[in-house]
Amino acid sequence: MRCLIIHNPASGPHSDEIFTFIHALSTAGDEIVLRFIGPELEREDAVADARSFDRIVVSGGDGTVANVLDLLRDCGVPILVFPSGTANLYFQNIGNAPDAAALAHACRAGVTAKVDMGELFWMDETGETRRHGFINIAGSGFDATIMQKAAPAKNDLGEIAYLLSALSTPEPQVAHFTIEHDGRVDEIDGISCMVGNTACIQNEINLFPDCRMDDGLLDIAVVKPTTLVGLLPTVAAAVLDPVGKGLGRPQFKTFQAKQAKITCKPSLGMQFDGEVIPNNSGVFGARVLPRCLDIIVDEFSNLHRG
């Protein structure tokens, strides 16, 4: 088996566990190629020959995984996501067993599920239209503020950095969102507009109760105007009903769509998969890229069809 491993050594507190995985995976006759992405090796160069391998492993946090998977769309090679980052939300949504030996076994077995990605469009500070694939959630508003404030400390503090960031914003700014989606237009005031490709966030809480990674749809949620304290009913509902099928998500207005254009006035910044991006226009677009990734799954994943 020829296996390409793309690893970000600066991704987070679990970075070194990739070596335990390699030890568990390797057997006589294998060719294991490990490439460290960073200042000396750009991700585009790291995946230039990816299609010549039997397996690809992407090791890093959500930002790293999103960046690399965006380059591997429709490559046709089974891809294993290895959780080396801070939150590892995409890995949690896949649902594989997290043990390095179990992931090595799944990698060799090579059972895959075809899953979607989201694609985000926005205008940068020079007026140029930019695009990027996303795997979890993109959005504008309170979520972008949390990511921006947490960025300097997330490698040192882990997920606590996100909590401290949220607590430092007791009264999130309200904006007016115009959402054009699949031929419809909705106008809503809120503190955040999120577009999701996956559903689960920290503590296995399902943010978008009807979301699946393979349904060919994006899930859109606007959080209605409130304070941090005012979000407690939604937090309580999420704790008591993580799946979200019983109590739902109070203070959320939700949609499903294949594509959407979202205008936020005033602009509240943007993020995708935890990465803050410069966008002062307050306008962004998103669309689903259906079944463009062959993600390796094990029997614990809800994507497993065996």
TrEMBL record:
Gene Ontology terms for molecular function: kinase activity; methylglyoxal synthase activity
Coiled-coil regions listed in the entry: none
Superkingdom to which the source organism belongs: Bacteria
Domain DAGKc intervals: 1-124
InterPro entries the record matches: ATP-NAD_kinase_N (IPR017438), Diacylglycerol_kinase_cat_dom (IPR001206), Methylgl_synth (IPR004363), NAD/diacylglycerol_kinase_sf (IPR016064), YegS/DAGK_C (IPR045540)
GO cellular component term, pick one: cytosol
Species assigned in the record: [Collinsella] massiliensis
UniProt protein name: DAGKc domain-containing protein
Matching Gene3D superfamilies: 2.60.200.40, Probable inorganic polyphosphate/atp-NAD kinase, domain 1
Gene Ontology biological-process entries: methylglyoxal biosynthetic process
Annotated PROSITE patterns: DAGK
